[in-house]
Design brief:
Layout lengths: L3 E3 L6 E7 L34 E6 L4 E3 L14 E6 L2 E7 L2 E4 L7 E3 L11 E3 L8 E8 L12 E8 L4 E3 L4 E4 L4 E3 L2 E2 L5 E7 L2 E2 L4 H5 L1 E3 L5 E3 L8 E9 L4 E18 L12 E10 L7 E3 L2 E2 L12 E2 L3
Parallel strand pairs: 3-11, 13-21
Antiparallel strand pairs: 1-23, 2-22, 2-25, 4-9, 5-6, 5-10, 6-7, 8-9, 10-11, 12-15, 14-19, 16-17, 16-20, 18-19, 20-21, 21-22, 23-24
The structure holds 2-acetamido-2-deoxy-beta-D-glucopyranose (5 copies).
One 2-acetamido-2-deoxy-beta-D-glucopyranose binds next to loops.
Amino acid sequence: MTAVRCSRWSVGGSALVRHRPSGSVAHVSLLLALLTLFGTVQHSHGYLDDRQPVYLEAKIGSYVILDCPVDFPQDEPIPYVLHWNKDNKPVFTLYDGVLNAYETFIGRVTLLNNDILYGKASLNLTSIRESDNGWYECKVIFPNRVPNKRNNGTWFHISVLGGTLLRIPPVNQTVLEGDPAFFHCVVQNPETMFVKWYKDNVSLLEYYDLSHRSMMGPDGSLTINPTQMSDLGFFTCEVRNTANDTQSASAYLNVQYKAKVVYAPKEVYIPFGESAVLDCHFRSNPPLKNLRWEKDGFLFDPYNVQVGKRCLVSLA
Ligand SMILES: *[C@@H]1O[C@H](CO)[C@@H](O)[C@H](O)[C@H]1NC(C)=O
Ligand SMILES: *[C@@H]1O[C@H](CO)[C@@H](O)[C@H](O)[C@H]1NC(C)=O
Ligand SMILES: *[C@@H]1O[C@H](CO)[C@@H](O)[C@H](O)[C@H]1NC(C)=O
Ligand SMILES: *[C@@H]1O[C@H](CO)[C@@H](O)[C@H](O)[C@H]1NC(C)=O
Ligand SMILES: *[C@@H]1O[C@H](CO)[C@@H](O)[C@H](O)[C@H]1NC(C)=O
């Protein structure tokens, strides 16, 4: 009998070990995109331009697409730097492949550089809040070229609508299990408005455990402390005024935790010379980075599997 132990760093799913003729090893690794914070501030000079500004309207809690092209000289793709400013303050930059969002825009902007419908410098600004009202400029700079600009930038004006009840809606959040989570739900007038929170469309009060770990601030915002794996889901805040008008907005809470093996049989009896399956179930968030099998305390790979044992490790 052979003891094969399944060790950690894996996700929800299941891994199988098959014993079959010939030796090989399973090794899965996922590259995690690394977002490094990087700061550059470039101020723009005035609203004059050859292009007409684009006027957009967006409701609180919704999203808006700011469609901006990268106008390559001679249509030849060359390196570029991207600056998005709002009222002369940085919103978002792309510099040397590093994306960076600033202050109140963190977690709310996505660059649509691979969407055929929109220009490569376009932004998706989500979870619209009242303060998003204003002028935005998209500037594309070609650092290795003289002149390094082709035009003066593209201007957008966002008018935020429907802020009668909600001023700041919640924004998606990722936390480590055990850390606190915080969701905005700032109402226009806390004196005359009531906030109710839901998780996955069920009133928060109906989650006995979660409601005991949650606290609502005077402005309607929600703090969960400490978070648990099971808190993962959609949180919705619903604002109601005395006239019974309502407005709601949702955000997703992602709770990350160390990988755990949830089930693996302790002993498996395998008929000599036949294939067998060793089962290993695991859970993890973020997804699998590395999964390893050990045999008798050693990494199970082709180099330390003896010839003649005839084992194959594969992932299902
Ligand atoms: C913009 O983001 C919103 C919210 O995540 C999403 O529903 C929408 O599909 C996105 N739009 C585009 C064009 O990616
Ligand atoms: C929030 O997270 C959900 C679930 O992952 C996703 O569908 C949605 O697009 C995200 N919204 C924003 C604004 O990123
Ligand atoms: C930029 O704007 C100025 C006026 O502010 C104008 O004279 C100039 O032609 C513009 N440049 C381009 C490339 O559009
Ligand atoms: C909550 O309700 C909305 C709208 O009725 C629905 O689209 C969504 O799938 C529901 N979410 C869950 C987690 O049940
Ligand atoms: C407000 O709406 C709730 C549920 O939709 C209802 O039960 C209640 O009677 C309404 N109150 C008023 C004052 O209309």
